[in-house]
Known about the structure:
Elements: H1 4-19, H2 28-40, E1 46-47, E2 54-59, E3 66-72, E4 76-77, E5 90-91, H3 96-109, E6 122-128, H4 136-144, H5 153-159, E7 168-170, E8 173-174, E9 183-185, E10 188-200, H6 216-228, E11 241-242, E12 245-248, E13 259-268, H7 271-291, E14 295-304, E15 307-308, H8 311-325, E16 330-332, E17 336-340, H9 343-347, E18 352-353, E19 356-357, E20 360-361, E21 370-371, H10 374-393, H11 398-406, H12 414-422, E22 426-429, E23 431-433, E24 439-441
Parallel strand pairs: 3-6, 3-7, 7-18, 8-19, 9-16, 10-17
Antiparallel strand pairs: 1-2, 2-6, 4-5, 9-19, 10-13, 10-14, 10-15, 11-13, 12-13, 14-22, 20-21, 23-24
Helix pairs in contact: 1-3, 1-10, 3-10, 6-7, 8-10
Amino acid sequence: MLTDKQKDLVLAAERHIWANPETGFREVKTTAYLLGIFRELGYTPVEASGITGFYADLDTGRPGPTIAVMGELDSLICRNHPDADPVTGAVHACGHNAQCATLVGVAAAMRNPGALDGLCGKIRFMAVPAEELIELGFREGLREQGIIEFFGGKMEFVRRGYFDGVDMAMMIHTAGLGEGQYLHLNRGNNGCVVKQAIFQGKSAHAGGAPQQGINALYAATNAINAANALRETFTDQGQVRYHPIITEGGMAVNAIPERVVTEAYVRGADIDVIRRYNRAINRAVAASAAAMGAGVKLIDRLGYFPLNNCDELGEVMAESMRELAGPDSVVSTTRRSSGSTDAGDISSLMPMIHPHSSGSAGTAHGDDYRIVDPYAACVRTAECIEVALGKLLSNEGARARAIKAAYKPIFASKEEYYAAAAEFRLDLDAVTYHEDGGIALTYMNKT
């Protein structure tokens, strides 16, 4: 268990990271801060090459499974939050600052005398960047430069080999739970595709000669309305969500907008659902551009695969929290969250658990989100993970070995995952105008 001094370290880390929010693949200060703590704790971190984040191993000296414990570095952007960075608008309205503090707590606790007695295998502490799927243009720029391949930090870590040899993974995310409840388990989360549509029109004087232009903004708003009209076809079981924003909407009010850019997600509970509705929305977007005589470039990238929490790992986590906080401290549901996380991609390759803890209040991703009980959000979660690691890695790792042996991942290898991810990649001009007046729409890969 954590000492009083270590608890102070954990709580100080939560406040420091809250006060210094940074968005995905920009978490330079946060990475440096945590690197300093891990080195002071006696670890030898391996820094991610060319991006933010790192991992650090703790070897028990006895052969056995390797378990990854993760914390997410990045913040959101919510400019009207009272604690938002005045320049960037960044704020931890997602609770990732508490995750990082929890990571510090587990790393510190496992350094205490006797903490590794009777345990085998390795623990890999991972400070991972870029879980929030925002600033898509920035991330696409990183991809074009060859710096990253995936928009999510966890899959970028997989690509770089940082998960090689890892048998299972865990983390705890903050949430607002009822009094006396400290851990919430659910079935998992939606997956998603991230989308950009670049509408191309023709500029003209908006007052003097609008008939000479092609209004890309109207093409974009038509596309949003057409996609909205599909909502009644969304199935309850599929948990489909579609939510676009306009990131470029024209340059001058007295000129017909010639270029407009939208970004969106299509979310769903499984891969087939995401694929089916993504194609329907692309069809609506292409047809809407054609209706205005505009062009549109469709750019799709895999966001995240659905998260499927491992029941057996969930039971280990639940047992651990009950030992710490009592028999009524854990709540569970068979429902899935309609949000998305790149922990889903990890769950497609290995056993993964992503429960939620108490300690926060307000609206997630909203301007009133805050950590109201840092002890519950950071200290108790760190001790819960510490106890869970003990259960998994004791007795020659018998419980961890059994969980891994029984788990059936969606993909048998990284290569299978890459092939599936590539199916969602789309870069095409969706509207072709022929000299005879005909129009052709292309809104999906031909293969």
